[in-house]
Amino acid sequence: MRFSDKEIKNLIKYLEKREISPEDAIDIIHQSTPEGKESNRKFNWKMTRFTLYVWQRLSEEKEERNLNSKTESAKIVCEGANYKMLYEGYHDHSTDKPIKGSLNYNLDKEAKNLFKLVTDPRQKHLFKSRFFVYPINRRGIISNRSIEDRSMDNIPQDHLDYLMQWPKRPLLNPK
Prior knowledge:
The protein is mostly helical. The protein has one domain (41-164). The chain contains seven helices and two strands. The protein has a two-stranded antiparallel ribbon with strand order 1-2. Strand 1 and strand 2 (145-146) form a beta hairpin. The protein is globular and about 55 Å long.
């Protein structure tokens, strides 16, 4: 991510005006940026589901040249063996901190919840390029690149926005 000299000067001016040291600014940014930690199982489960959903949309785009509806994509994700295996792992009640919920897997409920989660405007800030990479296939290739070439792993933001098909003008106060 590149910043112009003007943007950097504005940031420095803002920090000086409010007497915020560079260390404090870094701490503020670090605290406000979501991060996957072993102890943050709910966040990790949410981001895992988002990743599976984005990968599904990528495969639809590649294979069908047309995206399914978001509801259909969510259902396909939840039908997959990976999703079921991960669901059981995150909801394993023998661990110290399981995610609340039933161990009984309900496909319709999971598909509905995933659809609601990915279409919730409050989650849009998590759909940033830095959180999503292209899937690795069985031969260790990421979108026709070898695993050693890590320079272009992240899905570009404009491609991610296309896959998610965010509304152009979301309603601010729906009635």
